[in-house]
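Page 42, continued from yesterday. The earlier attempt failed because a stray header line got pasted into the input along with the sequence. Redoing it now with the clean sequence only.
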Amino acid sequence: MKHFESNNSRKIKRQDISLLGMLIYLIPVVGFFPSLWTLYRREGSREQLRISRLSITLALTWCGGYILLGSGASTSEFFALRLQILNSFVTSGYFVVSAWLIIRTVKGKQQKVPGFSQFAEKVLDKYLS
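This time it went through. Structure tokens are written below.
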């Protein structure tokens, strides 16, 4: 009986570690690096790889938008304020979507963002596999 309990507790610990890893992947900006490492090594469950792809896609999209809007705001006098406001919306959206995905992960629901999830599966899976 004790042997059965230890196997059961090991299984629960593995699930907790897997959940913790997925939560780390979804942390804005910081989660990009462990996600990239997971995809580089090609280790982890199918769900971890899917979340890693989504995390990288969200981070690169945000970074690209942040750089483009920031450089546009610094070069344009007329649109500077508008581009800075749009930049703050993009940044806020990235953090809100990441928080929403973390909450969905904790609840055990599927982590999908319309458009981004499909793009991440097609593009990153093509170039990183």
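Notes: The two ends are 43 Å apart (CA to CA).
Reminder to self: strip header lines before submitting.
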